[in-house]
């Protein structure tokens, strides 16, 4: 019963993505779902399978990936959904996945003359959800106030370059290099405002939530309306080892991770805020 309550207490979009992840794991051996939804430049560019740009969000290559994706969704996406609302979080995820896959296709065309394998059927992108997380973490890290971050006390680096450390981490564990590079590039572009023209305003999303076609969804348990959304925790990080100085100072990686989790999309948090 406790597990059931925890499941239904999870915000709706996060809960839906977690459910879709495990449904995909079950269906893949039965109907070969991965073959239909995984993204690859070959299928998108040469075969015109444009649906893969978005549907790779439900691509799950195995049980281990499903466990990782579920954990990250529960720990990060649930907090983000509470802060920004269900419909906005869903839009952010879809936008991040589509933009990443489009970037992969562009880079594949550019590098194909020297690396033709990037346009082969075997060159596949990874789980779309993980790509979306890399985009959103990159975007969020650029709004953090510290000018430098301490990496486990071993060395410091400008917060600007923190996503590049994540890129190296993903590559070390076998992630598609073009996909990871595209995710980080999209995150940087988003942080610089280049995606602002396609980001809907709160007023637009509130209008969508009034549509009769969405009334059942909005009334579902766990749906976080745009009006009700907002940070649930204080902005300041007061734990030991968190912020060690003001803007222009040095911050611990713990403080950065906590801010990304709890206040990833707080408006007005520019690099110098």
Brief write-up:
With 273 residues, the protein is mostly helical.
Could you characterize the architecture of this molecule?
It is a single chain. The protein is globular. The chain is mostly helical and 273 residues long. The chain has helices at 2-9, 12-31, 33-37, 41-46, 52-55, 63-84, 86-111, 128-141, 162-172, 177-191, 202-209, 215-218, 253-262; strands spanning 148-151, 155-158, 250-252. The protein contains 13 helices and 3 strands, in the order ααααααααββααααβα. The protein has a 3-stranded mixed sheet. Helix 6 (63-84) packs across helix 7, helix 7 packs across helix 8 (128-141) and helix 8 runs antiparallel to helix 9. The longest helix has 26 residues, at 86-111.
Structural category is mainly alpha
Please give the oligomerization state of what you see: single chain
What's the end-to-end separation, in Å? 44 Å
Major β-sheet strand ordering: 2-1-3
**Largest sheet geometry:** 3 strands, mixed
Number of helices: 13
Could you list the spans in which at least 5 consecutive residues all have pLDDT below 50? 233-248, 267-273
What is the H/E string?
HHHHHHHHEEHHHHEH
Mean pLDDT: 85
Number of strands: 3
């Amino acid at each position: 019963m406790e597990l059931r309550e925890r499941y239904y207490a999870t915000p709706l979009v996060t809960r839906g993505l977690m459910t879709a992840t495990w449904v995909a794991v079950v269906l893949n051996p039965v109907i070969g779902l991965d073959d239909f939804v995984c993204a690859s430049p070959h299928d998108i560019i040469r075969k015109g399978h444009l649906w893969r740009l978005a549907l790779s969000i439900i691509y799950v290559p195995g049980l281990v990936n499903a466990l990782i994706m579920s954990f990250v969704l529960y720990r990060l996406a649930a907090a983000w959904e509470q802060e920004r609302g269900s419909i906005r979080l869903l839009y952010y995820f879809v936008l991040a996945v589509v933009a990443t896959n489009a970037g992969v296709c562009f880079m594949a065309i550019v590098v194909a003359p020297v690396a033709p394998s990037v346009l082969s059927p075997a060159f596949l992108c990874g789980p779309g959800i993980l790509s979306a997380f890399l985009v959103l973490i990159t975007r969020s890290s650029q709004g953090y106030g510290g000018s430098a971050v301490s990496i486990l006390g071993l060395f410091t680096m400008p917060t600007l370059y923190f996503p590049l450390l994540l890129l190296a981490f993903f590559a070390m564990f076998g992630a598609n290099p073009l996909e990871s590079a595209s995710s980080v590039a999209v995150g940087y572009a988003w942080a610089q405002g280049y995606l602002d023209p396609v980001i809907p305003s709160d007023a637009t999303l509130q209008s969508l939530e009034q549509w009769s076609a969405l009334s059942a969804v909005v009334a579902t348990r766990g749906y976080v309306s745009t009006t009700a959304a907002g940070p649930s925790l204080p902005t300041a990080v007061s734990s030991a080892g968190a912020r060690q100085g003001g803007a222009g100072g040095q911050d611990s990686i713990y403080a950065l991770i906590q801010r990304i989790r709890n206040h990833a999309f707080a408006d007005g948090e520019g690099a110098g805020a």
